[in-house]
Amino acid sequence: MASQYSDGTLPSGNIGRDFYIPGLTPVGGEDEGTAFDMHARQTRFNFSSNTTLSNGKALKATIELDFMATPNGDERVSNSYSPRMRIATIEYDGWLFGQTWSTFQDVSVLPETLDFIGATDGTIFVRQAMVRYSAGGLSVALENPETTVTPFGGGGRIVADDNGVPDLVLRYTLKQDWGHISAATLIRQLAYDDGNAIDSTETAAALSVSAKVNLGRNDVRMMFNTGAGMGRYLGINAANGAVLNASGELESIDSSGGLIAYRHLWSEQWRSTLSYSWFSADNDTALTGMGVTESTRSVRVNAIYSPSKELSFGVEYAHAQRDVENGLEGDMDRLQFSAKYAF
Fold first, then answer.
1. What is the pTM of this model?
2. Where are the chain's structural domains?
């Protein structure tokens, strides 16, 4: 990856050097900055088993690992990285137990990109522990809660673990010959207790609508998300779920975002995806301060060559922009190459 920033450079070891994170695009720097990086940390392994139990019913177990754990390894000599758990689930009789993609996320509309996520700005992107029941196109889940809070006046992020109830997600997906359309609702409690003067909760809700439309061998993928208190669910936590007011009470932060992507198959061996993604936060700057992210957006286009079904080589160009409430802005241009063998 070769990255050029309009306002400085992300420091070595910053996770934004490995893949695009909207809230990390530098702003307010005096000079342009460049960075070149190479890594194989996206390598992953997925193991699954399907077993018929003694009662005649099926049980599926899955575990998936990659090497994107932080902090980063040492690039001076060994370039060693620790494996991390991405997915670990068991599925039985319509029930799922364990850690996997949030029910609030429609994984099937993620664009095919070289970047680890791609259209990150407007994408719901969370893996976490849950209990989920699915029947037909309907899924209902109770998922692990976690609240991110902006202190009164700004100045960082508080990651609280004070929730008394799980996040509730309901999703319905309609599948047709032309593709699918899906809608999900997130209802969650935002909570923060500092063990002293602050002990506050706030209820928030959000909506996500997504679709994939087949156009012959090609397809269009889209997603739109809006609501209060999404926080960490949207844009890799580009905005927090809530902000503390002067009285020490939580107030949810409204945000929205979306993506649209078109994938075109040029031949049996060549394909490309063009995608656009955006994020916007409705910050009450009297509470959050002026140093928080107001909006981000990115566009990317790639070309992928597969000499065989299992092997792919790709090149991708991305342009991203970030605006902060105080008027500062910055952009990033990134050229990326990849090689992937799927087996």
1. 0.94
2. 2-341
Owner of token pair 């809006």: 226
pLDDT > 90: what percent of the chain? 90
Query: CA–CA separation, 106 vs 59, rounded Å?
Result: 23
Q: Which stretches of 216-328 are assigned E, i.e. beta strand? A: 218-228, 242-244, 250-252, 254-265, 270-282, 293-308, 311-324
| 61, pLDDT greater than 80 | yes
- Cβ atoms of 191 and 147 closer than 8 Å: yes
Rounded distance between C-alpha atoms, residue 236 and residue 49, angstroms: 31
b/e map 240-252, b = 16+ CB within 10 Å:
bbbbbeeeebbbb
Structure tokens at 37: 């990086």
**140-145: average pLDDT:** 98
Per-residue pLDDT at 78: 87
pLDDT of residue 13: 82
Q: Which CATH superfamily is domain 2-341 in?
A: Porin (2.40.160.10)
* Helix residue ranges per DSSP H, 181-335: 285-288
